[in-house]
Amino acid sequence: MSNASLIGRTAIVTGANQGLGLAIAKEFSKAGADLAVCARDGEKLSEAYKEIEKAKISPGQRLIAISADVSRQEDVRMIIDQALHEFSAVHILVNNAGIYGPMGSIETVDWDEWKTAIEINLFGSVLMCRAMLPHFRQNKYGKIIQVSGGGATNPMPRLESYATSKCAIVRFIESLALDCIDDHIDVNAISPGLLDTRLLDSVLDAGPNAVGQSFYRRMLDSKEKGKCTPLETGAKLCLFLASSSSDGITGKLISALWDDYEDWPNHIDELQNSDLYTLRRITGRDRGKTWGDK
């Protein structure tokens, strides 16, 4: 989707001061979008602003940076108000801000840190959607792209707050998508793959005693042997979902690494009338078992 155009469109990208969020913002900038980027760390956001500015394809593109915490309602309102004041219209929301949260057994980790992970990863994304939806509904158009992750589809012992928040936000996105169909608002979640970012570094810094020997060895092996998914892979999926190429695709959890999503526009009816690419319970009959189901 390197030829996808976002000229004439405006996007808000959260957690855009580093890692995947920065890669998404740069990809959108290269596609011609106007951008409002935000993150908690204002100093890093200022540095990211310079990189995103360099990626612009037109001097007429506008870019603003907002230092904000998406888990705070007043900050979320500030983000939306500033974006709408600057650009008049916003077409795309990318909820990327997230943290791993505390690592260790549930009975020993700091409870306030556990709650903070839920507040940022889950509540922050819900708050951004709540604040943005009236504008999208009024214009009968919008794109919501939610960054999820492996925590949505796999158990993650010793990182339960992260896994819980990522699974919950996908079911929220699937539910919200159904609520927004009549307003032509596409709502999707993405799984960008294992990324070599500060989140991976935080796992390695925590060590095997905190995250478990098996998970630690897998993360270390991916880091040392270059097995991580390039940031650009997830950013390109976000570009596809932000562009008109994906119109009508909604309520899905999409893998940047494994899914042939560029072909999906040819199968809109089948996608939207099935549970393909959604969270679901696996039953015995799904695995060919003759017991366990009535």
Account of the protein in words:
This protein has 294 residues and is α/β, with parallel strands linked by helices. Helix content is 45%, strand content 12%. It is built from 10 helices and 7 strands. Strands 3-2-1-4-5-6-7 form a 7-stranded parallel sheet, with helices on both faces. The chain is globular. It starts with 9 loop residues before the first strand and ends in a 22-residue tail after the last helix. The mean pLDDT is 95.
Descriptive tags:
294 residues, alpha/beta, Rossmann fold, 10 helices, 7 strands
Architecture blueprint of SSEs:
Blueprint (H helix, E strand, L loop, with lengths): L9 E5 L4 H12 L3 E6 L2 H13 L8 E5 L5 H15 L4 E4 L15 H29 L2 E6 L12 H21 L4 E7 L6 H9 L1 H4 L1 H12 L6 H12 L10 E3 L12 H5 L22
Parallel strand pairs: 1-2, 1-4, 2-3, 4-5, 5-6, 6-7
Helix pairs in contact: 1-2, 1-9, 3-4, 4-5
The percent range for strand residues is 5-15%
Note the main sheet. Answer: 7 strands, parallel
Number of domains in the coordinates? 2
Shape: globular
Short overview:
The chain contains ten helices and seven strands. It has helices at residues 19-30, 42-54, 73-87, 111-139, 160-180, 198-206, 208-211, 213-224, 231-242, 268-272, and strands at residues 10-14, 34-39, 63-67, 92-95, 142-147, 185-191, 253-255. The mean pLDDT is 95.
